Structures are given as structure tokens and as C-alpha cells.
From TrEMBL:
It comes from Chitinivorax tropicus. Belongs to the thiolase-like superfamily. Beta-ketoacyl-ACP synthases family. GO terms for cellular component: cytoplasm; plasma membrane. Keywords: Lyase, Phosphopantetheine, Phosphoprotein, Transferase. This is Acyl transferase domain-containing protein/3-hydroxymyristoyl/3-hydroxydecanoyl-(Acyl carrier protein) dehydratase. One of its GO terms (biological process) is DIM/DIP cell wall layer assembly. PANTHER family: FATTY ACID SYNTHASE (PTHR43775), SI:DKEY-61P9.11 (PTHR43775:SF37). InterPro entries: FabA_FabZ, HotDog_dom_sf, Ketoacyl_synth_AS, Ketoacyl_synth_C, Ketoacyl_synth_N, PKS_Beta-ketoAc_synthase_dom, PKS_NRPS_Biosynth_Enz, Thiolase-like. The keyword Nuclease does not apply. Transmembrane segments: none annotated. Gene3D superfamilies: 3.40.47.10, Hotdog Thioesterase. CDD domains: PKS. Residues 2-448, 463-901 form the Ketosynthase family 3 (KS3) domain.
Amino acid sequence: MMEHIAIVGLGCLFPGAETPAQYWQNLLDRRDCTTPLSNTELGVDPTVYFDPTPGTTDKIHYNKNGHVRGFQFQSAGYRLPKAQLDALDPLYQWTLYAADQALKDAGHGQADESIRQRCGLVIGNIGMPTHSVKRLFADFYHRMLDPYLQTLLGRPDFHLQAPWSAAGLSEINLMTGSHNATIAAQALGLTGPCYTLDAACSSALYAVRVASYYLQSGQADMMVAGSVCHADHVYIDHGFNVLQAFPTDGESVPFDRHSQGLKAGEGAGMIVLKRLSDAVRDRDTIYGVIESVGLSNDGGAKHILVPDFNGQMLALQRAYQQVNGEIDYLECHATGTPVGDQVELGSVEAFFGERGHIPLIGANKGNIGHMLTASGMASILKVLLAMKYGTIPPTIGVKDMVATPKGTLGLQHVVTQTCDWPSHGGPKRAGINAFGFGGVNGHMVLSEYHPQMVQTDITTLKTVPVSIIGMGLSLAGTDTLAAFDDTLRQGRDHFSPLPRTRWLGLEGRTDLLAPRGFDGAPVGAYIESLDFDCKHYKLPPKVIGTHLLSHLFLMPVAERAFYDAGYQLDGEKRNIAVIVAGDVDLNCARYQARNEISWQIRQSLGRQGIQLTEAQQLALETIAKDALFPTPYPEGITGGIGNVVASRIAAHLKLDGPAFALGSHENAPFKAIELAQFMLSEQLVEAVIVAGGSFGGSLENVLWSSLRQPGLPIGEGVGMVVLKREDEAQAKQDRIYATLTGLAIGHAVEGDVAFTPRADQVAQIAARALQQARCTPDQIDLLELCSGGQHQLAEAELAGLSQVYQTGTRSQAAVVGSVSGNYGYLSLAQGMLGIIKTALSLYHRYLPPAARWSMLATGQALPGLNTLAAQAAWDAPTGVRRAAVNSMGLDHAYAHLILQEPSETNRQQAKVPAPYQQRVGSLMSRVYTGREQTIPDMILTAEHCAIFGTKLPDAVTPTLPAKPTMPAAQYDGDALWRESVRTARSQMQFLRAEQQFYRRLNALLGGQLAPTVQPVKPAAATSTAPAAPSKPVLFDLAQLIELTDGSVAKVLGPDYAEADTYPIRTRMPSPPYMFVSRITAMSAEKGKLEPCFIEWECDLPHDAWFSIDGLVGAFVSLESSHAMIVAFTYIGCDQLFKGQLRYRAVDSQTTLYSDMPKAGEVLRGRVNIKSFLKVGKNVLIAYEYLCYVGDRLCFKLEANSGFFLPKDIEKSKGVDPTPYLKATQSAEPFKPLLTCDKTAFSTADIDALQAGDTVACFGPAYQTARVGHLYAPAARMLHRIASINTDGGAFGLGEVVGECDIDPDHWAFKAHFKNDPVMPGTLVVEGCEQTLKFFLCYLGLYNQLDLTPHTLIDHHYSAKFRGEVKCQAETLRYRLTCKSIDRTYEPDGHTLQQIALVFVAEIIYRGNVIGICDNLGAGFRRPGIPQQPPVKAVQPVIEVAK
């Protein structure tokens, strides 16, 4: 058994706490350390970023998070110059501070040199751009945009003005991916393993587990492990705003069912680790002992952002596989998100409940917010301090516990008050959960130290040889191993001039290039684009592009490598790990700049006195934003979360081993392979996929590269290897390309932040690797170099290797070369592609020529080394072919890796996998590494110039051709046009599927999300009305009734006979609730769940049962949309789903543009079915419904419906009305025009009002009234008013509670639906409307004969249902709360001109709120007064379940 690891030192910097002691006191004091953003952090007024509506693009609606405030870093006394440390961002300073504090707490201060030589630093890091990055790039992006905005405005004097200065900031601040660990190690004199990793919110546990490997293997004697989270607050908050993870009501309470989201945090936490026996020997203070850490990934069980019960259970099972499963306390992940907390508590209940003991639980995020990558450190420190003091601090705020599946874990298990640690006579034991974005799961088991814990049967982790059994890559002009191999053999290069869009048309801007030492774009092996199969990889075209660039390139390569290793995409879960090695991509700064440019434009225009209309100003902001970076979407936001690319690979390939990103600049692939070797040696996983990639050819990455000099060629691409233990690969007869026998990595302490390559370090690390591989220098025949970007690097590398490989016993010099000669300097991908090149050479037994060697090297002599002009057969004078791959990088590290050819037995017996078959995708989209257009083309268009009254410059031409006037058949020969059409069609197919997917998926899981997209009134030119009434009829009324109540086969033919066998099938409501007279057009196709449309008409006779006073209830027009069910019947949904799924509407959003259809008119409708999305066994459908009378658009409804399993329909637990009933400001009271003493009304009173007798209902003051009827008699949904007032409710504007007696014999149950009875949701909403009208009567508005009731135009209203009204006797209640009353008066100040009232209605059934109708509205105005919309009306998500 591996030795336990002791924790001997603590350090932290958290919100409100600069030491562990302060953090502990804050927990005991129940202190909420979250605060709003301020000018202090941002350098600008936070209101420039604010918008009250969640999800508003490029804005933030919530910012009360855990911020580190008032911390002053003391930079003196470290091993780096004070001035250099002062020039660094807080990201670097916090990392160093917390690590130094932990080392000092462990008793190892600055003077303790010996231990630091054997001490390393591994930390979780968020790797996002900071405020310093924003400041360093602001001037560059402003100068980049200036000339185009000047031309657009016709104002050559316009300049964007930066609000802040970059003076005093080091450009090292741009390296936010891993360099904070490098700087901390340099400043502290640590020469052991050093890198960062990103496992999202699980990063701390992953870092601790990884750091433990170096102790258990003997490679280090002490490790500092922890995690840090610090980034540009706007960048993070904006991302969460797009994801709608923040609470809509501002309340975030872990475990509480009313919590609506998380609040973010920031900070740094570190612990010092030693082997337990060493800690005991050294008499260290032992805060706790790590018994185990269980890691897992969800492996694609659900969407990448949705937690999975089984994935969490797997982490728990792995953690307790070899240790006691009974713990006293569990510190939960508990972020306060409804779905996240529910899934976590469900897994906790299931796992510990099965073992007969559910521990006490708690969480800390209510105190300090969710510190993301650093959150796990807050949990670890809390548990360690609780063990130390024997006290468990409270979890604050929780009152109404999230329900668990079995109900056995409840509020009684939550530590809501400070309590003593449970006493049972043994050591204290606790668990810690950490579950992150991407399905990254971790669970740690901690124990109080006890002398009996010292182990006697300790096993040292001995690394075993690991083999490369699969490979994949993507480079310029090279997507297969065969093509790569051919390039290497021939010594070719793939260099070409810069593609047109790679630098966005800025390569001629010497004003941007010259300050960085470039006079133009260097030649290189650039990648401009790839074709991505959206359907195969389950990503809609709308979201692919710059946001997800690394994901889109790595996923196909991962699949090819997976197949190359002999695996198949068979749906089977495999315990395989994924490590994506790399570092920060500076392209993220463009997204950061997009977040800032709007207010900077406004400020610059104001300072320069340039006046624009509001419309022009908004247009200018949008143009500039979109030129910098595309509009963000939820899926795209995941591209900025470092670990998600690894999780996306794991999800696609169904892998449930650990999946995360590792950052360490150019040496990241080597450190990832070292870590993979640990995992395989421990037999933690079956295999490990290691990926490395770089898109270093972008403008920012080239200009700001520290290891690239102008004039040398640029390269970019990705590579991937699949590793397995050599003994297991041989036993399973896997094809082995090469076997790793030696790998040495060392770090040099320079005394300076700058990296200076050293030949002596190269030689020292190469000698260590040879020793580890148990071979001599003369047994290495091939050396792959990392040189290619900088001559200084090449000189040091060749000098160091010559010292080692210049031997007198060698029969021939070792052959050297670099993949840079073929593809340019590949930056972060250099090491991985060098490894793949070397493995191929070993496997195929040839020595490759050194392409472009004279360009890479400086002509120096190569003692003991040689280059080839052409490939040569690889003889084996020493018996076994061996090669080495060398590396060095900005992390001040040097690496040397030894590979050996496979055995002859493996060559003869290995099962060579079948060649990978490239799929011809059915939904292909082109992905650009830059953008589809250049920045000049994006900004300077004729349309944009027209906005500002300027002329399009002659030099600017569109990137894509204009729409052709020639026949389509002739134009089809133009490849560029075909690509444009294909992309457009793909995009149309998924136009809103992505946003709807997240919203619906969360809704199905019980979440409550605010709106993401507000509807826009369609212009006449773009609103397509249905066909004219004279259009031929596809299905008449008799056929529709037959389809609904009779036989489908009789109408559609014998192919549909199967549908008739299902008693419950897809059908429209039966008469009299069928509001469709004929179908006039339809594009649905049999058997195809694809976008289509359907058009119909509905006659609205004056004498129809639903007509009253010449009007038609809104429920008729809304319910008419069920004509689309005919399309589902025609597609054959019943046959496809075998009658197992029930059709239900999920949600809709309605915008009124004119009066609703009236009696005597013909309703014409069109539904455009936009997409079908499968979620588990259910199918979600997105569509829009346009309702017309003639050519007049009455309303537009954007909606989702679907086919669901009955059990999923029954799962709903109602709606929380709290967010709808929170007043943001005090309302101005409204005095009723008439006064009634009654506060409740009987059925007889309602009957009297319906009959027009207002006096009998309200009293004599209401004598003169023209109410009309409340309802059509058969549509009555109101029987009583239980209570009513005019100044109550949450907003102080009035509240009314109506009641309806549900009769099982009601005709609606027979009509909606046959054999599947449920009260129509539209009829329930009609009950709310009837109650609303009663309230208006009560106010006396119908008694004002000079006020005319009218429909609120351009008004949005909603109804969200999470339950059904069953065919059973019951009382249904409507509680309407008036939320706004907007009115204007005549000059006399008291005579009303017009009034608009808006309500929120709760639908209460069997004691639960099953629905919310929001923004129900009504208006009155005097003749001749134009309507003004209610200014306080909001536009929420509108959801109607039927």
C-alpha cells in the first residue's frame, strides 16, 4: 500500500482572510465576506458593465462575490528582485504569498536550502486573463481599431482612449496559464516538480493527488500543493452571466432549495505535504493525513455543464476502495445552484446511506463565494482547522433544504450551528467533495493523525515503462500519420505565406508590428481552417469558432488516436485519463477586450465632443465588439474554461478516468507524460491520452512570444498520444510504436524572472534521463531537438547535448533534427509533435533528414552530432534502436525523454488496428483559426457606412461574394459560394437550439433560469405570412378529426397503421377544443426529425361557443398552435417512439403586436419547427408560431415542446414564486376609482357579474358599468374570489385569489387529450385572465365610460408550468399580484388619460405552486390617446406546459 501523506503546513489568502486563523474566525463568526465589485478592482465605475436583465450580452447583472480586499504584498526578501515582483499581477503575488506562508508554517523558512532542493510546487490555476492583461493589451486593440472606426465615422480625429496605463507592468503578466507557479518556485528557490493544472472546481484535490505522486515515488521529499483563482473580474462575471449561473434574485445559499445560483470568489490556498513517516520523524505539526483521493469524470453521461450522479458516485467509490467508508463529517462542494446541490446531495445520500451512516455535512461557499479552482483549498483548510480545534463551524443561510431522492438526508444533517466534532473514540475522519465544470469529480478522505497510522508495509511507487500505442495529429496540410511520416521521410516543409484571414487582415499594419520587432508576417506552416462535423461531435454550428478553437481541433484528433490505439466508439465506458498539455492562448485577450470596448467608445466619443445618435452609438459599439470577438454563447463560454477541452474529449470517447489540463509552457507535454507514467504505474487507469497543441500563429501569440524571434518560420497544430503500461500492451497484443524508458525533468533557479537557456542544464538533465533508461549516450541514434524559434535556444541546446553525446565509443554520430524544419516552431505543441515524429521513426526504422537545418541552427560545429540530407535506413549497431527528445522552456525547466523501439515479438504478434475511416459528415461547418473575414471587411461594409452617412472606401471589398443574379445551377460551380450556402443552412438548422437546449435541460432538471434572448418584433419584410386562404387544402376538417379521434391509417395510409395500435399517441385536442379548420401547407417528411413548417387556418364564427361579445378568448389563438401535431403525426413520431413518450408543450414566449383574432375572422397560423434535440430518452422541439388575421401579425410565440417519458412528466416539484415577487423598488400607490367593502365573493356574486349585474356583485357605487361578460359560458374557469385587496401583495398594489372547482366530468378532459386527459394549460391561463378582469372591475375601471379597454401592444407575457391539473375533483386557485400600474393624467392631475396594469399570477394546485403566469396585462385609455407600453413590465422566460 502507498504511504499516507501528511499535511504539515497551511497558507491562504481568501476573501476577508490573509491567514488560516482569520479564515477560521470568519467561519465561526458566520461572516459573509462577499461584497460588490468596486472601482478599486476595476479602475472604472462598475455601473458601465451592469444590466439588470440576466443573460444580456456583454453585460453583468450580478457581482456580489468573494473579493480579496486590502491585501498588501511585501515583495522584499525573496530570491527574485523586488522590482520584478512589484511589476507582477496579484495572480503571481497571491501564489507566492500563500506558498511562502505554508512553507513557513511547516517550519521551512527562506534559509532552509536543503529541503527546497527536493521540494516542488503543483497548483490548480484558473488560467484566465487578469486585469493586467487587459491593461497591457488595451492600447494595442485601440490602435488596431482606430483607422477603421475613423473611416466609418468620417472622423479622422477620432481615437479610442485607454482609461488606464500599463506603465510598471511586466509582460510576464500575459502568461496567466502556469507562470505564476514558475515565478513562485523561482522566488522560493524550489527546484522540484513545478506546474499548474486545471480541473475546474476540483483543481485543489487533483493538485494534492498529483503532488503526492512525487513523494510516493521518492522524486521529492516535500511538496507544496494548492490552488489559486484570480482573473479579470469582468471576464469571469460576464462568463457566468452568459451561463446564467448567478442568482437571479441575488440570493446564493448552499443546500437551500430557494437558492438560485452561485456567487463567485477568488483567492489562494496552499498546503505543505510530506510522507507521513518523514513528518513523524521530523516532529512536524501534522494537521491531517490524506488517506485517499478518488478522481473521475462523468464521461459524457450528460451535457458538459450538467453534473452527473453516477460520475460523482464513481469518485466516491474510488476514494473508499481501500479505506474505511465511515466518516464523521463531509465538506460538500455545494455551490448554491439548484441542479448542482440536488445532484450532489443525491450522490451523498446514496453512497453513505448504503453504508448505514450519513455523516454531518456543511459548506463554506456562503461565507466566501465559490473560488472556482481554489474552492477545494477552502474546504481542505476548513476541515483541517475543524479537526485541530474539535469544532465544526456552521453553514450559513440554509433554511429550506433541497430535497433528496430518498429523503434520508435532510436539514438535520447540516451543521447550521457551531458544534463539537462527533466523538467516537477514534481519530477524526472527514470527506471533501469537489465537483467541477466538465464533469470533473474528486473526493478526498482526511484523517486526524494518530501514531497507529504509521504504516509498516509501505510500497514505494516505482515507475514502469509505458508504451505509445496510438497517435494522432493535425498540422498544416497534414491530418494523418501517413502524411506526416511522408513529410518527414522526404524532408519537406509546409511553409507558405500568411493566409488572408489568419491575422485578420492586419499583417500590413506596420504601426502594430514594428513596435514588436516585426516588419511583416513570417512564413510558416499556418492552419487557416478545418471542416468540423457538427452532427458527429454534437455541437451546433452556431457555437463553433474562435470560442472553442482548441476543442474543435483536438476532438477529431483524439478520436483518430483512440482508433489508432485499437479502441472503438462503442458506447462502453473506459477508465482512461485525458491530460491536455499546454498553456494560455493570448487570443483570449480579444474576448476580454470585447467586454470593455462599449463603454470605452462612449467615453472616447464624449471626451472628443463627437455627437452620435443613440442608435448610431449602439451600432458603433456592436460593430467594434463583433470585430474583436464573436458574440458569446453558453457553449462558447466553456472554451475559456481550461479543463473543459479534456472533459469534452472524455465525453465524446466515453472515458471516466481523470480529465484535466496541465500547464507548463513548452515542457507541458513532458510533465503530462511523467504524470501519465505515475497513473499507469499505480494502475489507477487503463490508459492515458496526452494531448498537446498550439495555435501560436495568431497575431498576438506571434508578437508577444518570448521564445520566438522575427524571421524564423511559424508553426501551429495539435498532436496526441495514447499511453499504456508496456507489460499490459504486450499482453493484449497492442501495436506499440515506441516505449518510454527514461524521462528526466529538472528546474533551474535563475535569480531572475527571465529565462536564459543554459547548456549545462541541458547536459545535466540528458545525463539523468540516460541513467534512468539504463543506457549510454552511444546507444542513442536519433536526437529530436526543441530548437526552431530562437537561435539562442538552439545554441544552448546543441552545446549541452554535444557535451553528453560526444563519446569516443560511438561508431557513428547521433543524428539530430527538429520537426520545426518541416512545420516551423510549434511552441506549446513542439514537444508533442517531436515525440510523435521520433516514435514513427523508431517504428518504421528510418533516420529522417534534417529539414531546413541551416535556417534553424547558426552554423556552429556539432561535435558528436550529425544531420542528414536525406532519409537513411536505421541500422541497429547496439541491438536496440533508441532515440531521445529534448526540451526546454519558459518554465525554467529542461526535459529529456528516451524512447525505445518495440520488441520484435510485438512487431510480429501485435494486432494492428483497422485504418481509421474518415466520416463524411452530414452537417459540416468550416472553422477558422482567425475569423471568416478580416477586421477591415467586418467593420467597413456598405451597410455600416450607411448608418453613419459615410462612403465605403474603394479598397475595401467583401470577403464573400454577393448573392448571385445568375441561375443557381451556374453559380454552383463557385466553391466559396457553396461553402457559404452550406454554412448558412447548417446555421439555420441550429439557430436557437443551443440556447434552448440549456434552458430546457435545466428546466427539466428542476432549475429556474432567467431569459437569455428577448424576442424582437419581426419587420414586415422578414415576417412570412402563411399562404392565402385560396391555397389548396392538404387536410380538411373531417380528415383532421379522423387523425385525432379515429384512424391515422385511414388518412395517411397503411404505413401508419402501427400508430393506431397505441391507445395514447400523438394527437391534437379533440373537438370542441380543436382550433384548426384545415391544413394548407406542410414541409414535414416521413421518418425525419428535421426542421420543417406547417400552415393552417381556423374559422372563428360569431356563434361559436368560444365567442362572446364579439371577442374570442386568447386561449383559442394560443391553443391553435397544436396544429403542428399534424406534422408530428405525418413524420411518424408514434412509430419512432413506440408509443412510450407523451407529447407536452414545455414553454413559450409570446409577444403581442396587434389585437387578438376576433369573432367573424379567420385565424391563419404558421409554425416553423426549428430543431429536434434528444435529451436522454426524451426529445425536445424548438419552434416559433406566427398568428395572423389576413396579413396582420397578431402575435409571435417562440416555444419548446417535446415527447417525454411519463415518469419524467411526474417528476416536477412545482415552481418557486419567490423570484417573481421581489420588488426592486417601492411602487407608487394607486387609489381605486371606486370602493367596495367586500373582500371575498361567492359563486353567486360571480354569476351576477357575468350576467351584467355589477350592483349585486359589488354594490351601488358600481351601477354604471359596461363590463360585458367575464367569459364564454363553456370556458368558465372562475367560481369564487377567496380574497381581494387593492394595496396588498409583494408590490403593495393589490392582490386577488380566485378559485375554480375542477370537475372530473369537465368536457376539457375528454378533449385534451383522448386517452391522456389533462386540463389544457391555455384554459388554466384563461382562468387567470378571468380573475384579472374581475380585479379590474373591482377597481372601478369598467365604470369609467370615457376609458376604453384595449390590448397591450408590444407586450410580452408568460406562463411557466411545472405540474398538471389532473382529471380529479379538486380546487384550483389563482393568486394574482399586481406588480405595476403605469398611468398618465389629464392636465387637471386627477382624470386618467390611460392606465396599464401588469400582474404575476401563481397557479396553486393541491397546495403547490405548479405554474407562474407573469406579465399578464390589461390597459384602458381615453379615445385619441396613443398607447404607451407599461414601462415596468419585464420580459421573462415564458413557459406554458399543456
